[in-house]
Amino acid sequence: xxxxxxxxxxxxxxxxxxxxxxxxxxxxxxxxxxxxxxxxxxxxxxxxxxxxxxxxxxxxxxxxxxxxxxxxxxxxxxxxxxxxxxxxxxxxxxxxxxxxxxxxxxxxxxxxxxxxxxxxxxxxxxxxxxxxxxxxxxxxxxxxxxxxxxxxxxxxxxxxxxxxxxxxxxxxxxxxxxxxxxxxxxxxxxxxxxxxxxxxxxxxxxxxxxxxxxxxxxxxxxxxxxxxxxxxxxxxxxxxxxxxxxxxxxxxxxxxxxxxxxxxxxxxxxxxxxxxxxxxxxxxxxxxxxxxxxxxxxxxxxxxxxxxxxxxxxxxxxxxxxxxxxxxxxxxxxxxxxxxxxxxxxxxxxxxxxxxxxxxxxxxxxxxxxxxxxxxxxx
Length: 379
Prior knowledge:
One of its GO terms (molecular function) is mannan endo-1,4-beta-mannosidase activity. Its main location: secreted. Keywords: Carbohydrate metabolism, Glycosidase, Hydrolase, Secreted. Substrate binds at residues 123, 194, 261. By secondary structure, the protein is of the alpha/beta class. The chain has a single domain (41-369), classed as TIM Barrel (Alpha-Beta Barrel). Helices cover 31% and strands 14% of the residues. It contains ten helices and 13 strands. It has helices at residues 31-43, 70-75, 94-114, 145-148, 155-169, 204-221, 240-243, 272-289, 308-317, 350-358, and strands spanning 12-14, 48-53, 58-59, 62-63, 81-85, 117-121, 182-185, 227-231, 255-259, 292-298, 326-329, 362-363, 375-377. The strands form three sheets. The chain has an eight-stranded parallel barrel. Helix 9 (308-317) links the parallel strand 10 (292-298) and strand 11 (326-329). The longest helix is centred in the first third of the chain and has 21 residues, at 94-114. The radius of gyration is 20 Å and the shape is globular.
């Protein structure tokens, strides 16, 4: 464990309620979910956790191997945050949905049992035109958001889909028998035009109405009490006002985030100053509103910049005024030789990633304290 010296036993430090930081929007949240939220807040004062999408399901050149991740193959530790997706819980046959439920349960429970954290994206198939998938396709996709909110033609269909989400949430338990907490991040990058819930395809009122209904129905009607709700636009903003254009309100969000590939090297273009300023806007709002902040998606496809980790990403995370609970890079495709965002053994940025891993500021799964307990070993 890289932080052995930092984790010398000084006693289990209780998180006092008076200085515990932000509170969840779900007053009936499970003890483990409350503990995770408060502990992430405490850890984020001095650290950022590293995450990788689909890290435990597949990687560069492999699929479905037990207890394997490309990150572990390089560093000896899995990522602290593991990204999964609820995309397989709708728009498919009942048999396929059942298979996907079982796979998700195992991945999420295994991560919890190891002491890691799960964050959930939702590349949600358009319920009105399922043949178009989750992307918006001109001339083929239907403007679904207005049809999913109360009073819409597909509202009951949407409630049925949310019941499947709740079935997964309310049946995924760890070895200790407890429901597993998850950071649920629906309708991400809503300020862009590529998803059917994106800015050009619904009004701000329709989008916020969908978000509020989703949270309220899951929490209050379906009794899901192990979700931390994360709001994460893309990087198409330069001010707080623009960032909050489709924000559903503090009563419906636990974590504020940002997805930003464009400023961090996509297509060979860097604007790190702009990227850091956007991270500051998110951090500042989180502090003002009593929320957590996270860098919910980023990365450099194929990682051709061999010092990207320590000369681009790490300085951004450590910049003045930036406080991110975690940073998550996107997936490593099984078959594609170029679609990957974390190094694998032999990849050009491997040595630099090991330096990123060794930095005391970054935390990986092997470094985590017991984040599901209301007190943990201070770092």
